[in-house]
Design goal:
Shape: globular
Number of helices: 10
CATH class of the largest domain: Alpha Beta
Largest sheet: 7 strands, mixed
Helix content: 25-40%
Mean pLDDT: 80
Low-confidence stretches: 274-286, 293-302, 314-327
Distance between the termini: 23 Å
Number of domains: 2
Strand content: 15-25%
Radius of gyration: 22 Å
CATH topology of the largest domain: TIM Barrel
């Protein structure tokens, strides 16, 4: 039965009166801001920005580290809730034909849920875990413990958040943002020296390091750091990663290949490049092609959409091997119409998620 406009408005009003957070867009409603004590007089926290209206009132959008003003007020999930959320997410990916994923930045509070699911053999697809490298206590505990390997859950790395994002204009760029430079708050969330110390702490134990780098300035700084670390640990191929590697110039592309680094890229990030000078779509296509042909993997975070994004920006048809040697090709426009019939992992049929 169709809901009347009046009843729909009433339902929406009822929902909006309750505090909520839209995590992906970093948006909070007025009730959530009130609980967190955020108003027109609240100063911007270090490394974060509170977006405001013309009268100074907070809009509800909290950029980068400003979200930490609200996070302490969010009721924690129980371990059962964490496990159900993990299983539902993995089952959704399995339904798209994904058989293995990387979970980057696993927090201390969520880790027990992952470990319990792995211990009970309930993970439907394989998961490579990178722990939260910005959490010093978590790092120290796992350096003592060492990497963990099992059939469906592996912990062998740390993810570190270095700069911000293009959407919030907090990524570190070599030049100003081209659309609204006065609103940009380029952010360094952890110092290069702190990342160096972390790498020297975890590398002897065989842990991989993956550093979140969006802007071209951020990518150059981490590439320079990795160069120093490669000299310090010449016998170890720890597959250093640049997470996202979103804005690259020709020099960075050459150095990534020369140093044998991994550019962990998402094709869908192309949509944000209009915000930075010199990062035209043509340059993006060149960067993706150069990285692929120089032997660096192009990573996708979900199934059909990133494949389509990569294909539509790189080539007229998509192969499922490295460019130039596909097993088969189809027109890129048909990628979104792929239907997954069944997903099998380790000889087992992955069944649909039945929880809520």
């Amino acid at each position: 039965m169709r809901m009347s406009p009046k009843r729909k408005a009433s339902r929406i009003g009822s929902l909006l009166s309750k505090p909520f957070i839209l995590a992906r867009s970093q948006a909070n409603n007025g009730a959530a801001l009130t609980i967190a004590g955020i108003d027109a007089k609240t100063p911007h926290p270090e490394g974060g920005t509170i977006l405001r209206r013309a009268n100074g009132e907070a809009t509800g959008v909290l950029l980068t580290l400003a979200k930490k003003l609200v996070e302490p007020h969010i009721p924690p999930l129980t371990q059962d809730q964490e496990e159900r959320a993990i299983l539902k997410g993995l089952q959704l990916m399995a339904a798209e034909g994904v058989t293995s994923v990387h979970e980057a930045g696993i927090s201390r509070k969520r880790l027990p849920a992952w470990e319990n699911l792995a211990r009970q053999g309930r993970l439907p697809i394989r998961v490579y875990g990178l722990l939260d490298g910005n959490d010093a206590e978590l790092v120290a505990n796992w350096v003592k413990r060492g990497p963990f390997d099992s059939d469906f859950f592996t912990v062998r790395g740390f993810k570190v958040y270095y700069d911000g994002s293009l959407g919030s204009r907090t990524a570190l760029l070599a030049g100003p943002y081209s659309d609204r430079p006065h609103e940009a708050e380029m952010t360094e969330r952890i110092s290069i020296e702190a990342i160096r110390k972390l790498a020297e702490q975890v590398s002897p134990q065989g842990f991989q390091l993956a550093v979140h780098t969006i802007g071209d300035a951020a990518n150059h700084k981490i590439i320079d750091l990795y160069r120093v670390l490669r000299r310090k640990f010449p016998a170890r191929d720890l597959r250093w990663r640049l997470e996202h590697a979103q804005v690259l110039d020709a020099k960075a592309i050459r150095e990534i290949s020369q140093l044998g680094l991994i550019a962990s890229m998402q094709p869908s990030h192309a949509v944000g490049l209009a915000r930075c000078q010199g990062a035209a779509d043509a340059q993006l296509r060149l960067a993706r092609r150069a990285l692929d042909t120089q032997g660096n993997p192009l990573f996708c975070c979900d199934a059909k959409d990133p494949l389509w994004a990569a294909a539509s920006r790189l080539v007229s048809s998509a192969g499922f091997n490295r460019a130039g040697s596909p097993d088969f090709t189809i027109p890129s426009a048909q990628l979104k119409d792929i239907k997954v019939i069944e997903t099998w992992v380790d000889g087992r049929l992955v069944k649909p998620f039945t929880g809520s």
